[in-house]
Design a protein that fits this description.
Layout: H1 2-26, E1 29-34, H2 36-43, H3 58-63, E2 66-74, H4 84-101, E3 106-108, H5 112-120, E4 124-131, H6 140-148, E5 151-155, H7 168-173, H8 185-197, E6 200-202, H9 208-217, E7 223-227, H10 241-250, E8 253-256, H11 260-263, H12 267-277, H13 279-289, H14 292-302, H15 304-308, H16 314-328, E9 333-335, H17 356-364, H18 369-388
Amino acid sequence: MKKLLLPFLFFSLKLSAQNVQQIHQKAILIDTHNDVLSNQLITKFDLAKRQTEGNFDLVRAKEGGLKAQIFSIWCGEKYGKGTAFAMANREIDSLYALIKRNPDKIALARNSAELQNIVKQKKLAALIGVEGGHMIEDRMDYIDSLAKRGMRYLTLTWNNSTSWATSARDEVTKKDSLPHLGLSDYGKQIVRHLNGLGVMVDVSHVGERTFYDVLATTTKPVIASHSCAYSIDPNRRNLKDEQLKALAKNGGVVCVNFYSGFVDSAYSAKVQSFVKQHKAELDSLVKIYHDVDLATIRLNTIHKTESEQLRPPLSMLIHHIDYIVKLIGVDHVGIGSDFDGSESFPQEMNSVADYPKITEELLKLHYSEKDIDKILGGNVMRVLKANAGK
C-alpha cells in the first residue's frame, strides 16, 4: 500500500493541475487595464516576441489564457491642450501597428460580438481604454474621434483633475483649493455623451464626489477598470464599501488591480525606504523616462532581488477579490491587472502568463467554474454589451 501511495498522490496533483488549466483556458479572460503601450514607445520592445522585461507580450498572453486585453492609452498630467490628444493617438497608432504586423495573433475588437469572434479564431482581442479625461482636451469631438478609433472606455480622470471632473488624488490633497468638486455640468454632458456612444465610463482614479455624480448621471453600467478594496488597503485609489455597493446597484463591475500599493497597506512604507536608498539612480532614470512612475518600474527591474522582498503574497490579492465578491456579489468583480503600469505586483504574479494562478486560488476557495468565468471576464463582457448594445 505504501508503494502505491506516492504515485497516487502524484497522479491526483497532476490531475488537479490539469483541471485548473482546463477551467482557466475555457474562460474568456478579459484584463481591463494594461499600460504596455506607453512603455513600448520608450522600450521599442517587439511585443509579438517573448520579452525578459515587462509584464506583457503576445507569447506570454497566450500561455496565461488571456483572451482579451483592454490596452490603456495613457499620458501623464504634463500633457495638456495641444499635446495630450496627440499622444493618445500616437499610442493607438502603436497598437494598430502591432495588429498589422501580427494579423494571425491579435485583432481589434469594438464590441462584445467582435471580441467573441476573435476569440473563436484563437487570437487575442485588443480593445482600447483611454486613461485620463485630460486626453480629450475638453473637446467633445475628440471623444467622437477616439471612439471611432476603438475607445471602449474613458477613465474620467487620471491622478490629475480636469476642468470638469475631480480626481481621487486632488479631492484628498487639494480639496479646499479646487474650483469645484465632482462633475461639472460639462462633465455630466460628457458622461451622457459616452453613454450615447456606447463607451463605458471608467470610475477608477476619480474622486469620491465625482464617483457619486457619475452614478447619478449615467444611464449605463460603469466599470472601475483597476481598483481594489479600501477596507483592506485604505489607499485613496481604492473603493470604499459604500462605493462598491453603489457600483453593484448600478450593475457595474470593479476590476481588481494587482499593484502592490493597492493590495497591501504596508507596501508604501517599504517602497519609500527602497526609493530613498536609490534616490540618485532614480533621479537619473527620471531624466531618461520623463516620468517618475516609469522610472521606478525600471529601478525595480535593476534591483530585482531587493525589490522582490517588498512584494505582498498572492493571497493578499485573492483576499481583495474574495472580499468584494462577498460584499457585493460575484456578478460585479473582474480583473484589471495594471500590468506594465506599476513597479510591483504580488509574489507569483510576474506577467500575463501567471493568470492561471488566480483560477487555482479561487478553486481552492471553492469558487464554482461558473463564478470563476464571471470574474475572469463574463462580468466585463456583460457591461461591454450593455453599453454598446452588442
